[in-house]
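Format notes (please read before filing issues)

Several people have asked whether sequences and structure tokens are stored in separate files. They are not. Every record keeps both together, in the order shown below: the sequence lines, then the token lines. Line labels are part of the format and must not be stripped during preprocessing.
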Amino acid sequence: MEIAISSRGAEPSAALVAATRQKIAKLSRFFDGLDVAQVHYAEEKNPRITDKETCEVVIDGAGGHQVQCKVSARDRFGALDLAVEKLEHQLARLKSREAIRGRRG
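Then the structure lines:
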């Protein structure tokens, strides 16, 4: 799976890039044919917002499947963990839907 990491504002640290590549690559075990993952980090500047760091992930796969999520947390690593958890749930649902379609027809 090809993983593209971008950030608005500051460049992501080497540890964040390594953790992102490792955790997003593990998502390919849920569903075959995941081709490209785009991960974008941003920081909200509004002082009233407590969860300032956002992580947006878009995964494109074979067969026209696209899975995406956007989460916020206090730090970028926490946002990454929440995004991976959300994507795992979405990919598991997609896999079960595809299995049901395969049995029908």
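For reference, the curators noted about this record: Strands lie at 2-7, 34-43, 53-61, 66-73. The chain has a mean pLDDT of 91.
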